[in-house]
Amino acid sequence: MHKEVDIESWPRRATYEFFKDYEDPFFNFTANVDATAAYAFCKREGLSLSLTALYYTLVAANGIREFRIRQVDGRLVEFERIHATQTILNDDDTYSFSYFEMKDDVVEFNRSGRLAVEKYKALHTYDVEADRYDLIYYSVIPWVSFTSFKHASRLDRGQTIPRIVFGKLFDDGHNRKMMPLSVEANHMIMDGFHVGKFFNDYQKLLDSTASQQANEAI
Q1: What are the residues whose beta carbons fall under 8 Å from the beta carbon of 44, sequence distance 6 or more?
Q2: How far is C-alpha 51 from the geometric centre of its chain's CA atoms?
Q3: Domain ranges in the chain?
Q4: Long-range contacts of 148-153 (CB under 8 A, 24+ apart)
Q5: SS3 for 210?
Q6: How far apart are CA 178 and CA 65, in angstroms?
C-alpha cells in the first residue's frame, strides 16, 4: 500500500526541487555501530546475527517517513511498509539476491529469513522483486571492516531506493563488538538529518536487545 506525496505541502519541497536535477544526487554515510548487545542476544537465543541486524535496520527505516518515500514514474509515493532484498553468497563463491519480507518480530523474521535464503540460493538469480519500489537494497561484505563504501551505479538520478551495506564484525579492544554500516540515499528524498536519525534509532534498537535478555532472565 502507498499514497502519493503532496509535494506542495511537503516540508522538504525546496530541498527536493534543489536536488532533483543533479546528475549525481546520491550521498553516503559510513559509521561503526555497536553490536555487542545484539551479538550476545543472538548467541543466547540461537538467532542469526546477520538476519537480526537486517531486521532492526528495517525497523529503524520503517520508522522514518523519508526512508519509505520513492519516486515512481515521476511521482513521489510513500509506502506504508518497506522490505529488503540482500546479496547472498552461493556455494560456488558467486552471489545472488534474496528477498526478505518484513515481519512483526525478530524471531519470526529469523525463521522466514532462513527459509528465504534456502529458496533464493536454489534460484540463484539477480531478478528478485525487480519491479518493486517498497524495498531497501542490502549488501553484506563480511570479509572487511570497511571505513567507506561506493556502489556500482548506472547513474540513474531517479533511483530513490536506499542502499545499505553491512561490514565485518570486529572487536574494538574495549570488549565491544563493532560493525561497519554504510547507508546511501538520494538527496532528493532525504537529508543527512534523516540518515543520522536512522543510525541513532538503529543503535537504540541494537542496545535494546540487552534489555530483552535482562527481562527474560527475571
Answers
A1: 213
A2: 11
A3: 2-8+22-217
A4: 148/28, 148/30, 148/182, 149/28, 149/30, 149/182, 149/184, 150/28, 151/184, 153/26
A5: helix
A6: 27
User: What are the cell numbers at 23?
Assistant: 546528475
CA neighbours closer than 13 Å in the CB half-sphere of residue 4: 7
Instruction: Look up the pTM and report it.
Output: 0.94
**Residue 131, Cβ density class (10 Å: 0-12 exposed, 13-18 middle, ≥19 buried):** exposed
Strand 135-140 relative to strand 83-89, pairing: parallel
Start-to-end CA distance of the chain, whole Å, equals 40
CATH 3.40.50.1450 fits domain 2-8+22-217: no
Angle between helices 49-62 and 106-123 (to 10 degrees): 110
pLDDT tens by residue, the chain, 218 residues: 889 999 999 999 999 999 999 999 999 999 999 999 999 999 999 999 999 999 999 999 999 999 999 999 999 999 999 999 999 999 899 999 999 999 999 999 999 999 999 999 999 999 999 899 999 999 999 999 999 999 998 888 899 999 999 999 999 999 999 999 999 999 999 999 999 999 999 999 999 998 775 455 43
Task: Tell me the chain's radius of gyration from C-alpha atoms.
Answer: 18
Tell me which H or E stretch contains 42: helix 36-45
Show the DSSP H helices in 46-175 as ranges. 49-62, 106-123
